[in-house]
Design brief:
The chain has 393 residues and is an alpha+beta fold. 47% of the residues lie in helices and 11% in strands. The chain contains 18 helices and 13 strands. The chain has a 6-stranded mixed beta sheet, sandwiched between helices. A hairpin with a 2-residue loop joins strand 7 and strand 8. Helix 7 packs across helix 18 and helix 14 packs across helix 15. The protein is globular and about 65 Å long. The structure holds protoporphyrin IX containing FE (HEM).
């Protein structure tokens, strides 16, 4: 018996859907557990249960053919990074990247982050009114990982554009993807260039990996991809989470008051921000075996778009999913993915956020919006582009 495929012609990558995605995600969740996206010839998983199951089933939902929605990018990236490999290659790369990102390895940075956070917050209080994205959220992501990696100052001014292009290019082959390709090429050129010994600061993570490559512990040709694995996903994602949190604290001052009177809540801020507005909308997977999505059979060989953003708002899983609540039990949210590809850098993102919100909580009593947030229009990333705020002390 042939099944009638539940399908949709909704364009998840249309400007108007990207600008206001949540009503569409809801419509898609209500339409089914798996939907064939006729415009893109691939499946969409919009509900939490199937997204979680897919992320945990990496043998069936393979990343080794790429995680994008176009052949150009998938051909170029497959097998070439931790994101686009399956075990055992994945595990080897993940161990190298993860060794510097364990809680124990990161602990040594918290004092420095807090010092830097206080300097930044003092500057912003002095200004009074500012753009929370450019002046607050971008400061750490654009300096912390580049400093740790030891990449030169020269070129850093392009990092935001380049890192964004690396995500953009994972979308379907639309106008946005096409126009991101030259920026992505530049990014790859820069990374290959700095992988040369003289360009990585002595003692940095990058330099350590170079020495490990010399010692035969890392395949030398994997050095640029490893640098890219640290740098590419660390910028826009963290900026997005920090901006969402500021926006929500401005909208819900009671949440800010709660955090100020109980600092243990700071640990949950990034999780709740990333649950509410997942910075990565979703990634692709290639099915190696059939998958049963609550009665719908997805066939081996099909492509699947796994939507973290929709799953994190699924009413079937979350109570009042549109509400920002830092008291919420956020365990199980998929804004950092789940399973073997779950974000290896989340501890670092949380450490940055902890330092920043601790410094803010010490001094700022209120965030007031002085204009509406303007959102980026992007294939894969969700994040605020500008957020005018005033802070009160
Ligand atoms: C709030 C900030 C962040 C968010 C929301 C985020 C989100 C994600 C998500 C959803 C995945 C899963 C990808 C998949 O399922 O295929 C992921 C993986 C990854 N992230 Fe993050 N990320 C953040 C910060 C960072 C930082 C700071 C770094 C680097 C220092 C980083 C490096 C990576 C890497 C290398 C992977 C691939 C891991 C693997 O394939 O095993 N991320 N991230």
């Amino acid at each position: 018996m042939t099944q009638t495929l539940p399908s949709t012609d909704i364009d998840l990558f249309a400007d108007e859907v990207i600008a206001d995605p949540h009503p569409t995600y809801r419509e898609l969740r209500d339409a089914g557990s798996a939907l064939w996206m006729s415009r893109y010839d691939c499946w969409l998983l919009p509900r939490y249960a199937e997204v979680f199951a897919a992320l945990r089933d990496h043998d069936r939902f393979s990343s080794a053919s790429g995680v994008g929605l176009n052949d150009v990018m998938n051909q170029a990236t497959k097998g070439g990074s931790v994101l686009c490999t399956d075990p055992p290659e994945h595990d080897h790369l993940r161990r190298i990247l993860g060794s510097r990102l364990t809680p124990r390895a990161l602990r040594g940075h918290s004092e420095d982050f807090l010092r830097r956070a206080h300097l930044l917050v003092d500057e912003l209080i002095e200004k009074g009114s500012f753009d929370a994205v450019a002046d607050f959220s971008s400061a750490f992501p654009l300096s912390v990982v580049p400093d740790l990696l030891g990449v030169p100052e020269d070129g850093r001014e392009h990092l935001l554009k380049w890192a964004s292009a690396a995500f953009q290019a994972e979308g379907p082959m639309n106008e946005r993807t096409q126009s991101s390709l030259p920026d992505l090429q530049e990014f790859l050129g820069y990374i290959t260039d700095v992988a040369g010994e003289q360009k990585l600061a002595s003692g940095s993570w990058g330099h350590q990996m170079l020495l490990e490559a010399r010692a035969g512990e890392i395949d030398e040709k994997m050095l640029p991809p490893l640098l890219l694995d640290y740098l590419g996903p660390s910028i826009d994602t963290t900026i997005s989470a920090l901006s969402t949190a500021i926006w929500q604290f401005a909208l819900h001052p009671d949440q800010w008051d709660a955090l100020r009177s109980d600092r243990t809540l700071i640990a949950n801020v990034v999780n709740e921000a990333v649950r509410l507005e997942a910075p990565i909308r979703g990634f692709g997977r290639h099915l190696t075996h059939d998958f049963d999505a609550d009665g719908v059979t997805l066939a081996a060989g099909d492509w699947v778009f796994v939507s973290y953003a929709s799953a994190n708002r699924d009413e079937r899983r979350w109570e009042n999913p549109g509400r920002f609540d830092i008291h919420r039990d956020t365990a199980g949210h998929v804004g950092f993915g789940s399973g073997i590809h779950s974000c290896v850098g989340q501890g670092l993102a949380k450490l940055e956020a902890t330092a920043l919100f601790t410094a803010l909580a010490d001094k700022v009593t209120r965030f007031e919006l002085t204009g509406e947030p303007v959102w980026n229009v992007h294939n894969i990333l969700r994040g605020i582009a500008t957020l005018p705020v005033t802070v009160r002390v």
